[in-house]
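Researcher: Batch entry, complex prediction.
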Amino acid sequence: MTVTQNEFTKAILDADLPVPDGLCNPEGAPAGKRFSVYRNNVAVSLSEALEVTFPVIRKLVGNEFFTAMAGVFLRQHQPTSPMLMLYGADMPAFLDSFPPVAHLGYLPDVARVELALCRSYHAADAPAIDPETLQSIAPDALLSSRLHLAPSVHLVRSDWPAAALFHANSDPDAPKPKMQAEDVLITRPEYDPEVTALPPGGGAFIAALMDGATLGEADKTATIATGDFDLTEVLGLLLSKAAIINTTEGTPK
Amino acid sequence: MHDTSPAKTSPAKFRTVPNRPGVGYKPQHFTAIMEDASPVEWLEIHAENYMGDGGRPLAQLRHLAEKFPISVHGVGLSIGGKDPLDPEHLKRLKHLCDWLNPASFSEHLAWSTHEGHYLNDLIALPYTEETVTNVADHVAQVQDVLGRKMLLENPSSYLAFAESTLSEVDFLAEVVKRTGCGLLLDINNVFISVTNQKTDAIAYIDSFPLEYVGEFHLGGHDEDEDDDGALLLIDSHGREVVDPVWALFDYTLNKTGPRPTLIEWDANVPDWPELAAEAARAAQILDKLTV
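Model: Structure tokens for the complex:
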């Protein structure tokens, strides 16, 4: 009697399936509860990995609910790599379609913020540009140049107050979130990623930079999106968060 | 920021793991370890936690590697898997080992990935002519890709396979014979397996090819029961090493002489002094043999 790893895997992930034949106790009787050790190890360890990546989602839905939800998630989405730091990329889409949380429309975006934090934490190191280098470039040249952002920089554009919700559930002193759309910037000045809500137009501006636009083009895009876009403010923010690593001269697209 | 670019010179200054106590590294112990790690003289890291591109994990590892011999312990290669080894994962492992140039590399006699799905557990395999060939091929491939000898660790077993035709010890000896790899003997896993299989720990150790053991692991386990109420031990690494495991370690060490000995504590991780106390207990047993 041989047991394939395919049968083994299916039975681990579905406790309603019988324990595969050919697995036994020392007396040769069916393995029974001994097989449950694997079922339990897999479910608990993957659930714990999700807890590490999504502490704010866990806080928002409650520990007990999170564990139950993680049990559903991990049976639909196993890690595709042994690098557990990458596990959970499917969580925003899962939250978007999981009926019990349909009334919590902001969860997918908060999960995106938490995923971005995890990616940022493990991103390659890249020294930031000296602010004086940027200030020394003539205004016209600056507008036609491209700003390159650090690999640890991420942008989450949300219809919800995703940054405020994140802060309110990770810092007891943070203000109560106001129900408004937020563009969220994730940066890593040294080793600890930070979450910042961007001022008006900041999301459109940074999205354009990430898309390869020149500074002038990105400024225009942001100003069209929001009349009161303040380029100096957003550039100052990016510099203070060590988010810009380089500039190159460029011709407009 | 600290340069962790693999193109730069390896931070590792140590080519071998000493026959002394080590511990599984946990980031919360970084400051304590850098100040005074005694009696711990070397560290083990789980390879998969250091496969990111940068940030604090690799920066800490660079600092640690300048001060301590590092053993890289893989938990995700799925060497016992029927599927071919994941070439991408093997590449990441090579990237890490080429950069770090660790003093040792080890992995498990177990599988964890099936058809691209990683289950994050060390799952048992039957011991047959077919599986010994598959495992030996995988071990040979790993050693070939990494350009270094590896140690293969004995698993904890909870159940038996009706189809097995080889004992675990004979299986491991055969892999050594075919590949030239070394063995990592986890004494806690031996204790768990013989208890769960109702066999004898001393007989296991006495039949083990001890001359190929390059390292010992010691860790804690939990207790449960099977359907018949028989004691079922579970490898949890979540508490101190129990006395019978220390006794079995002592027995084994008297046959092998001192070897690198690691304390594993991966869940409910204690503060540094409690972990260091476990390492001190290992040091006492190692010291008995060296004086």
